[in-house]
């Protein structure tokens, strides 16, 4: 028969003090949100969107908490000049359906670039965020503009090098 008290005293001697680290979770009032400006001119769409989604989510901060909105605001300029590799300009399609029969629509990337170029970056970043209430609140911190001008100079955004 095994004496568990003796066995536990062999494994955890009384003279050893166990130190436990505690994870501290921030409250919503303790979160700092900075503003960044990212220039999409000449950047590859997927690599650019993944870096922007990291900043939006807050994964670059040491206090990252997966269940909270920890990220910063990102302003993307020159979204119409983002590049894609290969033949994606003519072959990539975006799918949309309204749940009614026969209402599926397909939009090509080159058509979207001519009509609403900011939606290309928005859709790419949205694809890299969680699809829940948290993701819907995070995507509101993304501001995309097709030209080099943006109306967020009052927030004094920092330049984001990607």
Give a description of the structure.
By secondary structure, the chain is of the alpha/beta class. The protein has a single domain, classed as Ribosomal Protein L13p, Chain: A. The strands form two sheets. A four-stranded parallel beta sheet has the order 5-2-1-6, with helices on one face. Helix 2 packs across helix 5. The radius of gyration is 24 Å and the shape is elongated. The termini are far apart. The model has no long low-confidence stretch (mean pLDDT 91).
Topology:
Blueprint: H1 4-11, E1 35-39, H2 45-57, E2 73-77, H3 88-91, E3 93-96, E4 105-108, H4 109-115, H5 118-126, H6 133-138, E5 142-144, E6 158-160
Parallel strand pairs: 1-2, 1-6, 2-5
Antiparallel strand pairs: 3-4
Main features:
single chain, 162 residues, alpha/beta, Ribosomal Protein L13p, Chain: A, two-stranded antiparallel sheet, 6 strands
Question: Nutshell version of this structure?
Answer:
With 162 residues, the protein is an alpha/beta fold. The chain contains 6 helices and 6 strands, in the order H-E-H-E-H-E-E-H-H-H-E-E. A 4-stranded parallel beta sheet has the order 5-2-1-6, covered by helices on one side. A two-stranded antiparallel ribbon has the order 3-4.
Following the backbone from N to C, one meets helices and strands in this order, namely HEHEHEEHHHEE
Note the gap between the termini.
65 Å
CATH superfamily: Ribosomal protein L13
Content of β-strand? 5-15%
Query: What does the overall shape look like?
Result: elongated
Enumerate how many helices there are, as a single number: 6
Low-confidence sequence ranges: none
Spatial strand sequence of the major β-sheet:
5-2-1-6
| CATH-assigned fold name | Ribosomal Protein L13p, Chain: A
Whole-number mean pLDDT: 91
List the domain count as a whole number: 1
Number of strands: 6
Give helix % range.
Answer: 25-40%
Task: Work out the radius of gyration.
Answer: 24 Å
CATH class: Alpha Beta
| Helix and strand composition category | alpha/beta
How many strands, which pairing sense, and closed or not: the largest β-sheet?
4 strands, parallel
Identify the CATH architecture: Alpha-Beta Complex
